[in-house]
């Protein structure tokens, strides 16, 4: 994971600060150069994404295509696949 400001829609990120520290999210929308909206399909759904500063995120090299994602269950599956691949 790296700390960067080059985040695009669909990037898997991990929170560095706040109550959600250590949780993985997917970038749902890039608002500007400082803020993004994050979803995880559980607490942060597609209907109610979390607004977070980019400087409080660790990015990964994993980027998913979110064009056809309309259900929170799909987001949960994507994150579950990421976690499974990450663990040895």
UniProtKB/TrEMBL annotation:
Domain of life: Bacteria
InterPro entries linked to this entry: Rib_uL2_dom2, Ribosomal_eL14_KOW, Translation_prot_SH3-like_sf
SUPFAM superfamilies: Translation proteins SH3-like domain
Positions of transmembrane segments: none
CDD domains: KOW_RPL14 (cd06088)
Swiss-Prot/TrEMBL keywords: Ribonucleoprotein, Ribosomal protein
Coiled-coil parts of chain: none
Keyword Isomerase set for record: no
Name of the protein in its database record: KOW domain-containing RNA-binding protein
């Amino acid at each position: 994971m790296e700390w960067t400001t080059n985040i695009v829609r669909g990037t898997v990120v991990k929170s560095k600060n706040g109550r959600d520290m250590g949780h993985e999210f997917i970038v749902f929308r890039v608002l500007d150069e400082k803020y993004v909206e994050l979803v995880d399909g559980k607490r942060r759904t597609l209907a109610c994404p979390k607004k977070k500063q980019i400087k409080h995120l660790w990015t990964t090299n994993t980027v998913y295509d979110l064009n056809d994602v309309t259900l929170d269950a799909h987001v949960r599956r994507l994150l579950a696949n990421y976690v499974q691949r990450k663990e040895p």
